[in-house]
Amino acid sequence: MAAAGSSVVRRVEELGDLAQAHIQQLSEAAGEDDHFLIRASAALEKLKLLCGEDKECSNPSNLLELYTQAILDMTYFEENKLVDEDFPEDSSEKVKELISFLSEPEILVKENNMHPKYLIDGISYLIQMLNFRCPIQLNEGVSFQDLDTAKLLSEGIFSDIHLLAMMYSGEMCYWGLKHCADQQPENHEVDTGVSGASYAAYKEPLDFREVGEKILKKYVSVCEGPLKEQEWNTTNAKQILNFFQHHTN
């Protein structure tokens, strides 16, 4: 177990160094300080400091938490930049790069069989990210080109990455319910509200099925509604929703 933990520490340290170099490039290109990049860099500096200590004593959970926080802040900055530029024609490679960054924490968890706490933390961070993107309240002072655009704005969905985060969250809830429902840490609370939904956000011990259903129902609704012409695949989301519906505790 100690050897496995040490391996995780080394890998997180390597990924942290790569992310820090990327953040430095983003900061230089932006030409000004950005709150999210500053916060991401600070998290990675703390991660580097902890990794410099005895690797056998380092807590992989804390390191992965810092790395995940940094990645969410970094990708949020880049997502906003893509939105501001109205997703230029050459943005597909950038989106793939962001997806790769966002996938690293999940890959680490799967490769090292660190599921229970990390699934809960991962879902928590993604939901925080989703909730941070506040929906736009449409009124006479807000102009839009068509009803589909208005629907997306009112749901707080501004980019493809937001939809991917919703799908990731739903999938993690599926794995959590299937494999880790009886292994949740005590007193672990998460804000289970989802940005743009019609219900109020609240805190309670994480219910994988409830959270997953809320997120994936919204995902399917958006993909088969305003984004129908974009041909987003909802097959996996519907299969997971069916699993949630028929799962018994």
UniProtKB/TrEMBL annotation:
Q: Which terms does the UniProt entry file under GO BP?
A: mitophagy
InterPro entries from the UniProt entry: RIMC1
What would be one Gene Ontology cellular-component term for the protein? Answer: nucleoplasm
Top-level taxon in the UniProt lineage: Eukaryota
Q: What is this protein called?
A: RAB7A interacting MON1-CCZ1 complex subunit 1
The source organism is: Sus scrofa (Pig)
